[in-house]
Amino acid sequence: MKKISLKPNNDYCPQTLFLYGTYDENGNPDFGLFCWFSYTWDSELGAMCCIGGNKTTRENIERNKIFSANLVTEELLPVADHLGCVSGKSPDKMKIDLDIGKGEVLDVPVLNNSPVIFELEVTDFIKKSDCVIMLCKIRNVLQDESLSSDEPVEKKLARIAPVKTTAKTYFGYDGRNMGTWGEPMKRL
Ligand SMILES: Cc1cc2nc3c(=O)[nH]c(=O)nc-3n(C[C@H](O)[C@H](O)[C@H](O)COP(=O)(O)O)c2cc1C
Fold it and tell me: Whose CA is nearest to atom 22 of ligand 1?
């Protein structure tokens, strides 16, 4: 296949989306939307993520060292898009309809409507000029009971329908276009 060389981009590399849940210094929950999330292996499964610039999520994680990562599904997409497009500095950001619970092991806010939630503790902060890379221990995985059934994995995935993103566009589990960043929140 003939190739062309381009500047750094990841347009054809879809990423899974997570909502990171943190508490601010007054105990108020904040959620932000993130895709730079992947996994590590160091005797056990871990997570790694990158937050660019100054964000409420970053400030809260640097203070508390713990957060939740809630898998984004098609059902959650309008709120997820809002939480990714509105800064935690905006006083109205969290004034939307969210079913917020608490982690089972860590003191972190979680989204009860997400089917898979990691409770994460940061072990390493790698600070660069404009971002922080965080290596995390997975202290708990809160997973919908229904995902433990012996239904085939493809059926379970199609049922929970995780959303992917690339090229500033959201894609449903079956690959259909679910709008560009900033569009799904208009349905709220
Ligand atoms: C689809 C999508 C993915 C995003 N992924 C990241 C990411 O991986 N890292 C990052 O630093 N910001 C990411 N953002 C931006 C944050 O979600 C955004 O700055 C948000 O307002 C942060 O919320 P906070 O201010 O409450 O922390 C993403 C935004 C969108 C719309």
Answer: 32
In ligand 1, the atom with minimum distance to the C-alpha of 81 is 31
Q: Whose CA is nearest to atom 24 of ligand 1?
A: 88
Closest CA to 71 of 80, 63, 62: 80
pTM of the model: 0.98
How buried is residue 69: exposed, middle or buried, by Cβ count under 10 Å (0-12/13-18/19+)? buried
Phi, psi of 181, rounded to the nearest 5 degrees: -55, 130
Which strands make up the sheet holding 45-52, listed edge to edge? 29-34, 18-23, 66-71, 116-127, 131-143, 45-52, 37-41
Q: What is the pLDDT of residues 150-173, one digit of tens each?
A: 999 999 999 999 999 999 999 999
What token pair was written down for 63? 């203070």
Q: For residue 176, what are the CA distances in angstroms to 5, 12, 34, 58?
A: 28, 14, 20, 31
> Is the CB–ligand 1 distance for residue 35 below 6 Å?
yes
For ligand 1, atom 10: residue with the closest CA: 51
| pLDDT score, position 10 | 97
